[in-house]
Amino acid sequence: MAETPETAIRPTRQEDYPEWYQQVIRAADLAEPSDVRGCMVIKPWGYAIWENIQRVLDRKFKETGHENAYFPLFIPLSFLQKEAEHVEG
Prior knowledge:
mainly alpha
């Protein structure tokens, strides 16, 4: 039986894919966690990848007669209130 090669990221993809994916994103410095639960800050290399994905998909959508749509990010009211308190002093 062949041994599984040692990797720098634990767990392995086979053991826990969601955690492995998060570790890869962080190790590649593509994004980092945000203070907003469930969101990440996309860094320059990560954003460049996102722009390439958008460009390819946009071309495919237009070729098939589909249109893009954009849905705004919802920001929790508590974050807006915290920011308002910060601005007020």
